[in-house]
């Protein structure tokens, strides 16, 4: 590279750039220059080419797009001289990836180098293949490059090698091999242990491979890493000697002055620690580890941080030291004994929350979260709350979530929990997700003793000048429900509560307003004795929002206003909320998700032979032994089936239902007591956990409380949990399948139904492919065919269960008896988990499938045309409202449903003449002729004449063509997909009773 | 008075804080980190000048290589905040003598802190006028050696000054030679379709003044704007003179202009501050004379070749000329080779802005010149995106300088004798400016009745002058 002045000038120019912008300008200028040179007609000297390609590489490394010049780079590979070849290889492997077409150009040159005699070139070529070699390379190089099967023996042989350089690289290979699959490589295990022994115990290493007195730390680390991919070590002698080595490493490491030595020895140490952890070694060793870790964490953090950033460069370890350290500690929490030891270090961990390095802070947070139990929960949560006010934004949400979970899990008493959450909302309102306050509301609702306390607490918060919107939500909810419990206290009468809440109304966003309206309604109801003044004020508010642009607000305002006029009826409707069914905290679920995405350390990438952090965190029982002193059994991990997806369905359906919210209907229905009763019944169906007997209520605050039925949107949402939305438009899929023979008929999140069809004369064979898309089986699979009269259908047996990720084929024989446009319907249902999903699907066995294309000449056509004269064999109709199509488009359309256009038969270019053969059992092959006369001035109308030897056929075919011309692709026959049969919406006008056995009626419903 | 800022930060391009000043304690000290991580290091920088993060609003703008960030947590007046920043920068510039950049800030820490203390109080903007501030913040900035030497300062009487009726002008100024410089600076914004239809066209103009006048002079400015002329003819009860009148939109005045007189008499009369200031700003949307016509033809011949032909016609007076004309013709990113032929000026391909840059130093009126270029493109690996053809951009400046007094000296003297009004002048030269606006008179009245020399300069510049191709 020496002597390329232009290149070094360019690089120094770039380095001298003051800012990004100047750099970009310089790079663009250089790119322009390179383009000019590459485009030069006279061609480039090899020197110049080399120089510019280096420049390209440098620009690429700086992060700019280089989307030209690949040709030049690739051509350098076949250059004779080393410097050019080198740059060619390097740049090609940097700029291209294995899918680039340009790489094909290089294959031959690379191959020549590999089989050539020059060792250096071979190395270059192999490096390239190693970096970007893809399938195509493999294909063209086989057998130049060795096959990877059955390497275990060779690997074992390689590990016997004495030379440490070879050993290091073969160990890399071993690590990557066993990370995919450790089976078959067990013969390598003892060898690895031997190597470790040799390095750590015997120190039998040539001088040049020791680094600050440590025998080849790189190899040690790699060997231990490889060992971690094997599940356990069976052989007792190997195990013993390995432990001996590990013991030696653990004991022999200490903090010294020399930075590099520290880095190397600690790298080895930590790898050894993870290995110990992995092997689940004896107790003694484990406690030794903890003691060691404790020793390190108490060393001044800052110093160690600096040291171990270098460490991370040295051995390619992915975490800075303290982070690894703390991760190890987190992992150790699994071992009950270790916990006490770790707890001793709590103050240090809390201090490292303030560490400048974010990864350390994050780990410290995880660790605190993991080590929390009843005894220290109060301290830790308070610490976290304090930290929350200074933490940076990216961590605040996670932090608040974790604080909330800890408070919930380990609360010594419930009032403390309420205190903590309210404080949390007050401190970091922006970062408190809805789940957190949903949860506190659930708690308060479920614990009667807590209600007055919570109400008085939120009342205190309401006195603050500026409070967060989430706090307004919580307060509004709790005061609405339980405000009356405070009525005797000073400043807590209904009117005063209304006053302070109403002050906040102008400051909140529109999703909160409905909640406030509900609260007002409840306050009004609870005001005893009735307060006329308050009623007036609240009615004014309702009146004001009656014309709100937000449907939700408007609807509530109208409904509450009407309801509040009812007096006593109001009491029933607005009674206190029932207790919530117990379930797993959605918070914990959420934190698990966070863990999964946030945690990407290298250690995580190893096969999860170790239980991950997330598992430890999710299940606190083994950690603290005693059940948490909550009266609520929720955290003991009971999962209510519908809990997790419920919220989503709820919110989705809520948004869907709102636009339909018919106000007049809603109003008219409210007073009807019967309807109310019915609605309550329907609610009871879907929420069995709610004790409906003692409370009769329709109105619930659905905003926010996740397990509520959308009460105000009067139309009860039947069985939300069952509803599975199909993917894609079923009608469109059907229409597409009418014109082609294979494709997807139906798809939803769990199942995909594909169709493949073959048609021969009046026979057809359809194969339904039922594919299970999820990892759990689909049960109670049923498929019923509702055949129309003109088709004979035979469906082979459909299995009751579709195994996970499996596909089942169900052949279906079709025979056409006579022409008809009716469609066969497949009634398909299955059960996923507890929910029943059913769909009614039209099968694409339609009239045109029994047509056979036929091209006629004029000599054949006209005699036939003339012989079929007049109705009923020849029918003519003027069709209006046709979708405007150009003639070629129309020709395509006809050809696509197998009615062949015969060009040149009609002298008028605006007319089309078509012919086809129809097959059915009754008619046998039957010639059909058609003529379409279009009006060039008005494309929306045409005259259609159809003739055939059978009057029904003529009529049906004419109707069919007409349908196609008008309907496609609008799909005027919109299909009602998957109407859930049970618990049909009560408040809707009764839908036409669908008798599943009557295909005609079914079709009437469908079309 | 609205709150404008809770804190102000000056950051360099890397995001290091150069100087900061906290005016209210409702924002935390680490908010600027949020700005750095959430705005500066993302691509959203420059998209939106106001961003909200974590309950704080960040109002920011970039001046040369410095970001000035205002942080507010309450419901602040954003326009006020921006105006404050602009004025503060002008103030700093007048102290440092020209440049405002990272180096200037580093060299003037003490001065800037002193000024920041003075120009804002608890988040409320205070007096930002350089003339006044220089009375009591006498510390000199570190000037670059090339800027002009500061003049001697008279002894200040700050209190009286700030609280007086004419807060912007000091009593007792005296100059040997009384001079007024008036610049009408207009920038033409144009967007023209490739077929030559004007899609958008307007002129934003400002009247800049520099006064070196003794005593407390009262000035009156007459323009050929519609309202003013109509009012004048109404008052003098004679029909309005024929000739072009201009309709001004969105006029804003410097605080020295007497608005009550403007409302009643529609004349611009004012006691000017000493030195340089911006008297008024306006906008004109109708009847704009375009100084240049551009006729581009760009042909893409296949994938790797292009032909560009651009003809530029000047349509202003033949005796005038435009200076520094630059035409930027966009070309695709993968341009490799270019071949030019130009009738005047010089052209070059500039790869860093992906444009052919055609420069003509002096462009006389009523002439035309053309550029024709052949362009070769290199083939690329990236997905084939068709070239979006950004518009051609143009820069230019047309100047005209007049010495009002010399035009009509004899008549002027008569006027002085008879009316003791110091100066007035009428002149008519068509098409000085893009809008056609011109100064009809500028009267200076002072008790002592001295003579003044008035200079008027018309400058028409290109704003965003774009022609689609």
UniProtKB/TrEMBL annotation, chain A:
Localisation per UniProt entry: Membrane, Coated pit
Topological category with respect to the lipid bilayer: Peripheral membrane protein
Alphabetical keyword list: Coated pit, Endocytosis, Membrane, Protein transport, Transport
Clathrin adaptor alpha/beta/gamma-adaptin appendage Ig-like subdomain domain segment(s): 735-844
Similarity comment: family membership: Belongs to the adaptor complexes large subunit family.
Protein purpose: Subunit of the adaptor protein complex 2 (AP-2). Adaptor protein complexes function in protein transport via transport vesicles in different membrane traffic pathways. Adaptor protein complexes are vesicle coat components and appear to be involved in cargo selection and vesicle formation. AP-2 is involved in clathrin-dependent endocytosis in which cargo proteins are incorporated into vesicles surrounded by clathrin (clathrin-coated vesicles, CCVs) which are destined for fusion with the early endosome.
Assembly and interaction partners: Adaptor protein complex 2 (AP-2) is a heterotetramer composed of two large adaptins (alpha-type and beta-type subunits), a medium adaptin (mu-type subunit) and a small adaptin (sigma-type subunit).
Annotated PANTHER family: ADAPTIN, ALPHA/GAMMA/EPSILON
Protein's UniProt name: AP-2 complex subunit alpha
Annotated source species: Brassica napus (Rape)
């Amino acid at each position: 590279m020496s002597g390329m002045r232009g290149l070094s000038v360019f690089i120094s120019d770039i380095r001298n750039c003051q800012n990004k912008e100047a750099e970009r300008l310089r790079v663009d200028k250089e790119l322009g220059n390179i383009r000019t040179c590459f485009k030069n007609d006279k061609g480039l000297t090899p020197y110049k080419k080399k120089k510019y390609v280096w420049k390209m590489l440098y620009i690429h490394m700086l992060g700019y797009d280089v989307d030209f010049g690949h040709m030049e780079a690739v051509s350098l590979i076949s250059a004779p001289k080393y410097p050019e070849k080198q740059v060619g290889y390097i740049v090609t492997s940097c700029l291209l990836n294995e899918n680039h077409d340009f790489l094909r150009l290089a294959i031959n040159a690379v191959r020549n180098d590999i089989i050539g005699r020059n060792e250096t070139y071979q190395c270059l070529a192999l490096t390239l293949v190693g970096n970007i070699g893809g399938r195509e390379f493999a294909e063209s190089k086989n057998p130049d490059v060795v096959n990877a099967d059955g390497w275990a023996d060779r690997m074992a042989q390689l590990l016997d090698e004495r030379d440490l350089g070879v050993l290091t690289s073969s160990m890399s290979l071993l690590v990557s091999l066993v990370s995919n699959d450790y089976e078959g490589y067990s013969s390598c295990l003892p060898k690895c242990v031997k190597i470790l022994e040799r390095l750590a115990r015997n120190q039998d290493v040539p001088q040049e491979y020791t680094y600050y007195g440590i025998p080849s730390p790189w190899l040690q680390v790699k060997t231990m890493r490889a060992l971690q991919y094997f599940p356990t070590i069976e052989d007792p002698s190997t195990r013993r000697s390995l432990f001996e080595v590990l013991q030696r490493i653990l004991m022999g490491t200490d903090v010294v002055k020399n930075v590099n030595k520290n880095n190397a020895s600690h790298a080895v140490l930590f790898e050894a620690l993870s290995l110990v952890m992995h092997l689940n070694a004896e107790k003694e060793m484990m406690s030794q580890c903890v003691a060691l870790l404790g020793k390190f964490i108490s060393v001044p953090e800052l110093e160690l941080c600096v040291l171990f950033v270098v460490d991370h460069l040295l051995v390619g370890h992915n975490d800075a030291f303290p982070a690894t350290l703390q991760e190890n500690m987190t992992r150790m929490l699994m071992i009950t004994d270790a916990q006490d030891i770790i707890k001793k270090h709590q103050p240090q961990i809390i201090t490292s929350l303030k560490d400048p390095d974010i990864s350390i802070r994050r780990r410290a947070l995880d660790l605190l979260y993991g080590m929390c139990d009843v005894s220290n929960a109060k301290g830790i949560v308070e610490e976290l709350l304090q930290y929350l006010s200074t933490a940076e934004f990216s961590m605040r949400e996670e932090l608040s979530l974790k604080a909330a979970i800890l408070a919930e899990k380990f609360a010594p008493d419930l009032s403390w929990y309420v205190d903590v959450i309210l404080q949390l909302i007050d401190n970091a309102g922006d970062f408190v997700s809805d789940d957190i306050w949903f949860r506190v509301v659930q708690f308060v609702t479920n614990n009667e003793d807590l209600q007055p306390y919570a109400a008085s607490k939120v009342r205190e918060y309401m006195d603050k000048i500026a409070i967060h919107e989430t706090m307004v939500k919580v307060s509004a909810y709790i005061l609405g429900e339980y405000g009356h419990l405070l009525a005797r206290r000073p400043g807590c009468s209904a009117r005063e509560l209304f006053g302070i809440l109403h002050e906040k109304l102008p400051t909140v966003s529109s999703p909160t307003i409905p909640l406030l309206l509900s609260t007002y309604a409840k306050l009004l109801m609870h005001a005893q004795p009735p307060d006329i003044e308050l009623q007036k004020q609240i009615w004014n508010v309702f009146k004001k929002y009656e014309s709100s642009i937000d449907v939700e607000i408007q609807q509530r305002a109208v409904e509450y206003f009407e309801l509040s006029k009812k007096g006593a009826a109001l009491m029933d409707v607005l009674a206190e909320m029932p207790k919530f069914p117990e379930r797993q905290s959605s918070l914990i679920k959420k934190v698990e998700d966070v863990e999964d995405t946030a945690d990407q350390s290298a250690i995580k990438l190893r096969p999860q032979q170790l239980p991950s952090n997330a598992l430890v965190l999710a299940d606190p029982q083994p950690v603290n032994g005693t059940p948490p002193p909550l009266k609520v059994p929720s955290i003991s991990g009971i999962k209510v089936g519908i809990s997790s997806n419920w919220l989503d369905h709820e919110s989705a359906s809520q948004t869907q239902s709102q636009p339909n919210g018919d106000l007049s209907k809603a109003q008219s229905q409210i007073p009807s007591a019967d309807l109310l009763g019915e609605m309550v019944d329907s609610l009871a169906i879907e929420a069995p956990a709610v004790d409906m007997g003692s409370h009769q209520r329709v109105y619930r605050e659905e905003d926010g409380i996740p397990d509520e039925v959308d009460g105000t949107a009067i139309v009860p949402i039947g069985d939300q949990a069952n509803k599975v939305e199909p993917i894609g438009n079923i009608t469109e899929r059907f229409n597409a399948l009418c014109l082609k023979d294979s494709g997807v008929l139906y798809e939803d999140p769990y199942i995909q139904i594909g169709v493949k069809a073959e048609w021969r004369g009046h026979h057809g064979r359809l194969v339904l492919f039922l594919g299970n898309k999820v990892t759990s089986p689909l049960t109670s699979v049923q498929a019923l065919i509702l055949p129309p009269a003109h088709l004979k259908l035979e469906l082979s047996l459909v299995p009751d269960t579709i195994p996970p990720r499996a596909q089942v084929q169900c052949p279906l024989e079709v025979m056409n008896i006579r022409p008809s446009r009716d469609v066969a319907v497949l009634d398909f249902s299955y059960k996923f988990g507890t929910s029943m999903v059913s769909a009614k699907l039209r099968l694409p066995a339609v009239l045109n499938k029994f047509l056979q294309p036929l091209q006629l000449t004029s000599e054949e056509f006209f005699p036939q045309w003339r012989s079929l004269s007049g109705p009923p064999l020849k029918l003519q109709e003027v069709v209006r409202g046709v979708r405007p199509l150009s003639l070629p488009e129309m020709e395509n359309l006809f050809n696509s449903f197998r009615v062949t256009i015969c060009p040149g038969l009609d002298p008028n270019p605006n007319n089309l003449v078509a012919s086809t053969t129809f097959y059915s059992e009754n008619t046998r092959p039957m010639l059909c002729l058609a003529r379409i006369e279009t009006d060039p001035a008005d494309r929306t109308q045409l005259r259609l004449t159809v003739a055939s030897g059978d009057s029904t056929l003529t009529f049906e075919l004419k109707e069919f063509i007409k349908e196609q011309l008008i309907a496609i692709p609008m799909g005027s026959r919109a299909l009602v997909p998957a109407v859930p049969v049970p618990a049909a919406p009560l408040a809707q006008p009764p839908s036409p009773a669908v008798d599943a056995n009557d295909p005609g009626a079914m079709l009437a419903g469908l079309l | 008075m609205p709150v404008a800022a809770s804190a102000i930060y000056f950051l360099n391009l890397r995001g290091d804080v150069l100087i900061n000043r906290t005016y209210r304690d409702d924002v935390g000290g680490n908010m600027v980190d949020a700005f750095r991580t959430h705005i500066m290091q993302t691509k959203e920088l420059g998209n939106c000048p106001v961003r909200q993060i974590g309950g704080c609003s960040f109002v920011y703008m970039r001046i040369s290589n410095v970001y000035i960030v205002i942080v507010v947590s309450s419901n602040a007046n954003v326009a006020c905040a921006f105006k404050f920043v602009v004025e503060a920068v002008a103030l700093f510039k007048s102290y440092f003598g020209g440049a405002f950049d990272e180096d200037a800030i580093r060299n003037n820490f003490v001065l800037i802190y002193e000024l920041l203390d003075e120009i804002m109080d608890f988040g409320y903007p205070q007096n930002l006028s350089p003339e006044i501030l220089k009375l009591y913040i006498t510390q000199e900035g570190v000037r670059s050696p090339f800027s002009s030497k500061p003049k001697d300062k008279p002894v200040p009487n700050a209190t009286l000054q700030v609280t007086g009726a004419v807060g912007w002008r000091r009593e007792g100024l005296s100059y040997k030679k009384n001079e007024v410089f008036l610049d009408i600076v207009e920038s033409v914004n144009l967007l023209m379709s490739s077929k030559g239809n004007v899609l958008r066209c307007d002129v934003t103009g400002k009247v800049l003044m520099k006064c070196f006048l003794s005593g407390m002079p009262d000035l009156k400015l007459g323009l050929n704007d519609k309202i003013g002329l109509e009012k004048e003819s109404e008052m003098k009860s004679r029909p309005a003179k024929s000739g072009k009148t201009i309709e001004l939109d969105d006029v804003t005045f410097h605080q020295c202009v007497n608005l009550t007189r403007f409302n009643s008499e529609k004349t611009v009369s004012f006691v000017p501050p000493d030195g340089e200031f911006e008297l008024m700003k306006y906008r004109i949307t109708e009847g704009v004379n375009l100084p240049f016509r551009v006729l581009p033809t760009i042909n893409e011949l296949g994938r790797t070749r292009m032909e560009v032909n651009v003809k530029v016609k000047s349509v202003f007076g033949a005796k005038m000329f435009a200076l520094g004309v630059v035409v930027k013709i966009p070309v695709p990113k993968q341009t490799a080779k270019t071949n030019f032929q130009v009738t005047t000026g010089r052209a070059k391909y500039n790869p860093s802005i992906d444009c052919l840059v055609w420069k003509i130093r002096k462009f006389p009126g009523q002439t035309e010149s053309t550029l024709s270029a052949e362009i070769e493109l290199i083939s690329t690996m990236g997905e084939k995106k068709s070239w979006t053809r950004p518009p051609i951009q143009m820069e230019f400046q047309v100047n005209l300088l007049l010495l009002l007094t010399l035009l009509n000296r004899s008549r002027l003297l008569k006027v002085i004798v008879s009316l003791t009004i110091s100066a007035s002048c009428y002149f008519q030269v068509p098409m000085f400016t893009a809008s056609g606006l011109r100064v009809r008179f500028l009267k200076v009245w002072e008790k002592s009745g001295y003579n003044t020399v008035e200079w008027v300069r018309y400058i028409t510049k290109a704003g965003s002058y774009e022609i689609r191709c």
